[in-house]
Design brief:
Strand order of the largest sheet: 1-2
Number of helices: 5
Helix content: 40-55%
Largest sheet: 2 strands, antiparallel
Distance between the termini: 30 Å
Order of helices and strands: HHHEEHH
Structural class: mainly alpha
CATH architecture of the largest domain: Orthogonal Bundle
Length: 129
């Protein structure tokens, strides 16, 4: 299965699940229109509670990464509202960068990390359409 839950991690299972789905979208392993396993199926396969999977799917729906379809289930459907998401991203980055700043991580190191990470997504495409 393409989802792996680290049962020893302090990170909530639904967060692990949602992060792995987002990573797969970024790496173009999941594309717009692809369906995810049903809540019950994924819960059974991964070995977690159905409510946990449901929470991850609901969160992803709220963030605009998927939609729930009666016939097809959870479907990758990326909301393209850049302006709203850019503000959310700014708030999250502000906290991450503050943590790095406190640990004396330099601007250059952050830029290098960002470049390395972006190279992993979408086969290293420089810009998105």
């Amino acid at each position: 299965m393409w989802i792996e839950i680290d049962f020893e991690s302090g990170e909530a299972f639904y967060v692990q699940l949602q992060n792995q789905i987002i990573m797969r979208i970024a790496m173009e392993e999941l594309k717009e229109g692809d369906t995810l396993p049903s809540v019950r199926q994924l819960a059974d396969t991964v070995g977690i509670n159905m409510h946990t999977v449901n929470k991850a799917y609901s969160s992803l729906r709220e963030e605009g990464f998927l939609r729930l379809d009666r016939r097809r289930g959870a479907v990758i459907a990326i909301d393209r509202d850049r302006a709203e998401y850019l503000e959310r991203l700014r708030a999250q980055l502000k906290i991450l960068l503050a943590r790095g700043y406190c640990k004396q991580i330099s601007r250059e190191e952050v830029h290098r990390l960002v470049d390395e990470i972006f190279e992993e997504y979408g086969n290293g495409k420089e810009s998105r359409e």
